Amino acid sequence: MTDQSQYKKGSVVEFDDNWKIRSHEARQNYYTSGRPTNQIMMSFKNQWKVYSSFIKNPQPGMKVLEPGSGRGSISCYFAAHGFDCYLLDTSAEILAVAKDIFKENNLPAHYVCEDALHMSFSDNYFDVIVHCGLLEHFEDYRQALIEQYRVLKPGGIIISNIVPGKWSVQKAFGFINLFLKFVHGLLTKLKLVNKAEKAPKKPLYRSDHGSEIYIEVLRSLGAAIEYQGGIFPVPSLSYSPAFPFTVMSPKIEKFLVWLWYLVLAIRKMIWPKRHPWMCSEKWGQHVLVVARKPINQKLL
């Protein structure tokens, strides 16, 4: 697609509209320096712990880019640990939300409203490129990775968290979300909960590709693959789990956080050599690919 406003399957309009329609979800602050209080906060905290294990000799001021940042939840964790964070998104509205969230957390960042396929940064600029739920929305995922690799410094890493529409733990437990949706709808009709949103979430294109196609592109660019597998080994439960995810009541969320940490503790006993948030690609909600640019490689 040549039109930069159409660089994802269909259009970025659906993303922007979902952020606007579901303004409450868009403005959720999922960063915490303490114990998570909901499922999504728990996810980002564990993502950070996994991602940081791949960063060799982290130094204050290392530059991190999050293309397709949305509200920048994972970048909050990088910024809190001294990284110089750049949030890039096509939506000026969601970048304004991200700016408010970073201000709320007393964290610094740079905000760039640009197309992830045509970034204005110079070659070899960033130490880390990280994104969550980005590549599965691209038809032209190859160009997205080429552009990321271009702006990555030699020795730097790309951390790609992909959320494909494949079978996973999320689909295995999908019947629970269907039940929660039914119950919530019933309670809404009985006026026992707040009225449901006037506008439904718009469906988004999501490919079902596994890690192999992304690894093929990265290897063709000269990258060394450091991890290929699954991540996020527990389901996300909600009466409205589609993007952007709707958290449930604080009591339910706290119970689920307790339950999932219990599951992680059991997983740690079974697989002590890896972080319990990591899992097989088949089981994980998300697919994780970590690739490093060789230290002696300067040009594509």
TrEMBL record:
Domain Methyltransferase type positions: 65-159
SUPFAM superfamilies for the chain: S-adenosyl-L-methionine-dependent methyltransferases (SSF53335)
Example GO molecular function: S-adenosylmethionine-dependent methyltransferase activity
Classification via Gene3D superfamilies: Vaccinia Virus protein VP39
CDD domains attached to this UniProt entry: AdoMet_MTases (cd02440)
Protein name: Methyltransferase type 11 domain-containing protein
Organism: Candidatus Buchananbacteria bacterium RIFCSPHIGHO2_01_FULL_44_11
